[in-house]
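#struct-pred

JT: dropping the chains for the assembly here, can someone run the whole complex?
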Amino acid sequence: MRELVDTPFFGIIISIAAYELGLILYRKTKLSILNPLLISIALVMAFLAKFNISLDSYNKGGDIISIFLGPATVILAVPLYKQFESLKANVVPITAGIFAGCVAAVSSVYLLARLFRLPQVLSLSLIPKSITTPIGIELSKQIGGIPPVTVAAIIITGIMGAVLGPFICKSLKITDSIAVGVALGTSSHAIGTTKAIELGEVEGAMSGLSIGVAGLITVFITLGAARFF
Amino acid sequence: MKLLRQLLLILTICFSGEVINRLFGLPIPGNIIGMIMLFLCLYTGIVKLEMIADIARFLLDHLAFFFVPAGVGLMAYLDIIESSWPTILLISLITTIIVMLITGHTVQLLKGGKKDEGTG
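RK: done, full complex below.
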């Protein structure tokens, strides 16, 4: 029986099953906090712990799923290309906003992490937390972070953005549709974008666009800053 | 064959990104070089949207799912972050507010008096 969990099918099956469960739960409750990705990760973890199955066994299948992260990053060029016209029309405010947001993200995360005396490796892992996961994982590797911690921080940040984003924007008097979209996408990537799409077409488009741009800008400023420190 | 052909195109771009990353010893991840390459291919018309439409839909629709194993991998690091969870949550909250504040107001400030295009 034991060797059955060592087939790649096992990891793939429980991942898809857990994600489906997460989706059902999310659709039934409509609670942003019950994010399908968060739920499925928790379910798989609980399953592995309960039946005492090693992460290595799970990863025989898990690694096959992770292969798709590469093409998934490359394909972000498609929404970027589709929204290129609306980007061009407001290119200065949008790029300046994303750039300012990325600088604020990288510096505030790192400074707060140091202020709260987190270990260096954790502080570095948190830096890419506002950008999309495939880019975040790569950046985390490059600067010496722990990619799974980065993924956790990215998901937490995404859910916070999706759940609290509209409230935060309203409280901070961010009312312009383009500004709201760019703010959601820059601060909380794809998960924040799901909320932006609910708010409106312009919000959704701008948030989607910000995912790729913020990812690239964050990579450049982080790697640039890493050369000086 | 259609999906396979589209996958071939995307994987070739992924692979080229890795090749360029290694060849020139660039600090930019291969995935991101691939993303820039695909954008340039689309922009110059070398690659048409129809040529990758199905694979793009498949990948973008299931974007979140591909991150499940990466998140589960967190189990291996639970010891390191165990005591830091409340701090990580607090930092995430504060920085999310800061980033939204700075991003949103920079856009609004530079857009100036221009009419909000999103209403209606």
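JT: nice. The radius of gyration of chain B is 20 Å. DSSP finds six helices and no strands in chain B.
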